[in-house]
Amino acid sequence: MRRFLGEVDEQLGTSLASEPAVRELFSSAVDPDAAALGLLRVVESAGAGGEEGLLDALREESRSPSTGLLRRIVTVAGASEALTDHLVRHPASALGLQGEGTLLLDSPGAGAEALRNLLLHAVGADSDRDVASPVATRTGQDGVDALRRAYRDEVLRLVADDLGSADPVQVVDEVCRVLSDLAGAAVEAALAIARAELDPVARVRMAVIAMGKCGARELNYVSDVDVVYVHAPGDDSPDDAVAPDDDGVKTAEDMVARITEIVGAAGQEPALWELDAALRPEGKSGRLLRTVDEFDAYYVDVAESWEFQALLKSRHLAGDVYLGREWADRMRPHVWSASQRDGFVEGVRAMRRRVVSLVPTQQADAQIKLGRGGLRDVEFSAQLLQLVHGGVDESIRVPATLLALSRLGERGYIARRDARGLDDCYRFLRVIEHRLQIPRLLRTAVVPQLEDRRRRLARAVYSTGDRTTARLDRALADVRRRVRSFHEQIFYRPILDAASSDTVLTSLTAADARDRLSAFGYRDPKAALTHIQAATSGVSRAAVIHRQVLPAMLDWLAEGVNPDAGLLAFRRLGESLRDSSWYLRLLRDSGAAVHSLAAVLSASAYATNLLQHVPNAVAWIDDDTALAPRAGDTIAREARTLLSRHGAQALRPLRALHGREVLRTALTDVLEQPGVDATAAALSRSADVYLDALVSALRLSMDGDDVPSYEFAVIAMGRLGGAEIGYFSDADVMFAYRPVGEASAAGAAPLTPEASSTLAAHVKRLALALTKEASRPDALPGIVVDSDLRPEGRSGPLVRSLESYGSYYAKWSEPWEAQALLRARPVAGDAALCDEFVTLIDELRYPESVPDRSVRQMRKLKARMEAERLPRGADRSTHLKLGRGSLSDVEWTVQLLQLTHAHRVPALRTTSTLPALAAAVDADLIDESDAAVLREAWLLASGLRSAAMLFRGRTAASLPADLFELEACARLLGYPAGQSRELAEDYRSATRRARRVVERLFFGFDDTADADDPWAGRHD
C-alpha cells in the first residue's frame, strides 16, 4: 500500500503517503492494497488522458484529505475491481464522486425521473414526458457506449454512497430503488436507440413491463431484469385495428432484439445485465410480444399459479406509458383472484420446493438467495400472504417485499414482531448479496469459500468494529435460522389453504352465501351468515384476523357434528377476546390450534360453555404442556396458596381453580381422547382437592363459633369414592367428626351434653355449608354433593361422630351398606380422623366371610333395582346405568367379588372398579376373557355418559336414540365420521356379552338360561 501511495505522490506532487489521516483512510478500505493500486491506476490514466480537472481536485484533497473525493475513490477502488476498471477507462467519471451521491436525491419520484432524463440525454433523446416515444440521436455503437458509460457512472456514485453509509442495512431498500429506477432509465434509453434505428415514425406502440425484483423496485447491482413486452398499433393505424399488422409485429420484434443487444451484448463498454423475457406467457416457447387482449385471454384461461405470483410485482418500466397503464389495469384483477383457483396455495409451495431442489448441493449452505433461509424464503412468504388475502384487503397490494412485510404486520396477517424480524433479516441478506456483486459486478449470491474472499466480504459488510469472518458467519447463520423459522411458520400455515378459497363468503350474494353454508352442513345458514358478518365487519385488527381465519374455521367447524353452535361460540369468543393480542396471534399463526379450537366448539357444548367463562383457556389449546393432566399435589399446592392468600374469602378463587381443572380435562378429552379411566382420574383429583380446600376455607369462616376443638372428615362414596366420576356425576359423601378430647390420651374427660350438642350443631352447619357451596349454580362446573348414602339415608343424621358410626355399623348395618362402603374413600378434612374412619369400616367391608343370606339379599336388591328404578319406558338394552350388562351390572359383580374375597386378597381392597377387576383376574377369581367382557362394557357405558355430557352439556341416561347426538358421541369416542350406527351396535353387543357374564358370576345362573328373562321361574 505504501509503495502505491508513494507512486501516487510522485504523479501528483503530493505527500499523501505521509498523512496519518490518509493512511487511516486506506486501512479502513475493504482491501487497502487494492484501494492504493486502484488510485494509482486512476491517476496514471488521468495523467495519460489529460484529465487535469481530476488531478487538480486530488491535489487539492492532499491539503485537506478529510473531504469527499479521495475518500470515495478509495472506498470504491478498495471494494470493486470492475468499477476501478471503469474509472481507468473514464477517469473523468471520478469527478462525479464529488458532492452528494445518488442516494440523496430529493424523493423516489424525482430520483426516477432524474435518472430517466440523464440516460435519455446521454443518447441524445428528448426526455420530455409529453413525447410518447423518445427517439435517440446517438445510435449504433456510439449510442450504446454512451448509454453504458452513463449507467456505470451512476452505479459508481451509488456504490460509493452505499459502501460509505454508516448503516448500510438501513439504506439497502433505497439502494435497490435507485438500481431499479436506473434499470428502467437504461431500458428507456435503449428503446430510444432501437426506435431511432428501426421505427423512427412510431408505426408500432410498445411498452416494456418490469417483473420480479425490478418490477418491485428492489433490484440488486447485477441481476437479470425480468420483463415482458406488450405492443399495439401505432397512432397512424386504422381506428379498428386491435393489433399491429405483420410489418408492425416484425418491427416490434426487431426492436426487442435490439434492446436486448444494447443492454446485454458484449461490446467496447461492458454489458449492463441480461434482459430476460422468460416470464412471458408460455415462457421461452411463447411469443415475445402480445397485445393487451392477448395477455388478458392468457391469464384468464391458460396461466399457471406461479405466473400470477410473478404478476404481483409487475409495473410499467419503459416505452408507451398509456399502453403500460392499460396493461397493468387489465392484469391487476387476475392477480387478486388467482388464489381462488384449485390447489393455488399448494402450487406456490411446490414452486418454492422446486427452487430449493435446484440449488446445487455444494452451494446449499452458501446460497443466500435461493437456498433455505435465504431471500426467496422471505419473498415467497410475503407474496403468498398477499395473494391469499389481497383479494379482500387492498392495503397489502404492494409489490416491494419490505413494504409488504410492513403492511402485513400492520394489518395483522403476521405478528408485528415477526414482520420486523423478517425485515431485519431481509435487509441483512440483501446487503450481503450486494457486497458479493460489487467487486466484479457479476451476478452471484453465493458466499465464497476462499478465506481471502470471505475476509474481504466481511470487511465490506462491516465498516467498523469487528470485521472478521467469524462475526459474519455467526450473523449469517443466525439470520438464516430465523428466516427458516419464520418461513415455515407462515408459508406452511394450514389456514392459508382454506383462506385461498372463496369460502369466506364475502364476495357472494346473501342468497349464494346461505346456499354455500347449507351445503357445508350448517343447519341455520342465515344465522351463520350473521355470525360471520359480525366477526369480520370493521377495520379493527380482530376483524382482519377473523377474515383470515374464517375460511379455515368454517371448513373445520363443518367437520364437526354441530358447526352452527361452534360458529356462534367462535363469534362470542372473538367478542370477549378481541382486544387480547395473544388470542389474535394464536388465530393468525397457529393453524393447528385453530383446527383444535374448531373441533372443541363444534363437538362439545359443555367445554364451550366453560370456555365462555374462562376464555383465556383458549391459549391451552396451543400448548401441549398446558393440557397435560396435572398431578393432585400440584393442584393442592395451588389451592393452599389461594387459602393462604385469601383465607375465608378463598371460596370464589377455589371454585375458579376447580372450574379450570375440569375445563382442562374436557379439552383434553375432546382433542386427545385419553380414555375413560384417565378422564375419571383427572376429574376425581380435582374434586378431591376442591372439597378439601372448601372444608378448610369454610372452617376459617366459622372460626368465631364457640365450640370445642374437633376433627372433621368428608368420606367420598359411589363413583367419587371410586375415583371414577364423570362430568355428570354427583359427589356422594358422608360427613364424620370427632372431638379432639376424645382423640387424646386415655382418661380425658368427655364433653358435657351441652358441649356435645353445640359441636354437633356446628359440624352440621359446616356440612350444610359445604353442600351448598360446592353445589352453587355459579360454581362452573360445580359439584353436586349428595349425602343420601349415609347411615339411615335421608332420615339419619347428616353428620355423625366417629363413635356414632362405630355403634351404628356394629348394631344396625345392612348388607347393602357394607357393599356401599367398598367405595368409601376419605377425600377431605383431618388426616387422623380419615385414617380412623378407614380402620373402622375395613372390618365391615372386607369380612372374613359373607353369609349366603347376605349374597341372596344382594341379588334380590339388584333385581328389584332393575325392576323398579328403571324409568318408565326406558329400554333395558340401552340404559347406561341400570340396563342389562351396563354400569351397575359390572360394578355389582365386581363388588360381590370384593366382599367375598378381599379379606384374603389385599389387592381387591380398592375403591375403583377396573383395578378391582384386574386384581380378581390376578387372583384367579375370574377368567381374563370374562374380565375383558366386563371391562369393555363398563368403559363403553361410562364413555357414552361422558360423551353425551360433553356434547350437549347435560347427562344422558340411555344410548342416544337421536342419530345427530349418537354421531357426536361416536366422534368423541374416537369413531370415524359416519359410524354412529357402529357405536350403537358395539354397545348392544358389548352389554349383551357382559350380561351373560353377570348372570353367571353374580346371579349364579348357567349359560342355558333365557338371556332375555334370566329371572323367569328362578327367583331365590
Automatic annotation (TrEMBL):
The keyword Thylakoid does not apply. GO terms for biological process: regulation of glutamine family amino acid metabolic process. Residues 352-491, 860-1002 form the PII-uridylyltransferase/Glutamine-synthetase adenylyltransferase domain. It comes from Brevibacterium jeotgali. One of its GO terms (cellular component) is cytosol. Keywords: ATP-binding, Ligase, Magnesium, Multifunctional enzyme, Nucleotide-binding, Nucleotidyltransferase, Transferase. This is Glutamate-ammonia-ligase adenylyltransferase. PANTHER family: BIFUNCTIONAL GLUTAMINE SYNTHETASE ADENYLYLTRANSFERASE_ADENYLYL-REMOVING ENZYME, GLUTAMINE SYNTHETASE ADENYLYLTRANSFERASE. Transmembrane segments: none annotated. It is an enzyme of class 2 (transferase). The keyword Ribonucleoprotein does not apply. Its EC number is 2.7.7.42. One of its GO terms (molecular function) is ATP binding. SUPFAM superfamilies: Nucleotidyltransferase, Nucleotidyltransferase substrate binding subunit/domain. It holds the Pfam family GlnE. Residues 72-324, 595-836 form the Glutamate-ammonia ligase adenylyltransferase repeated domain.
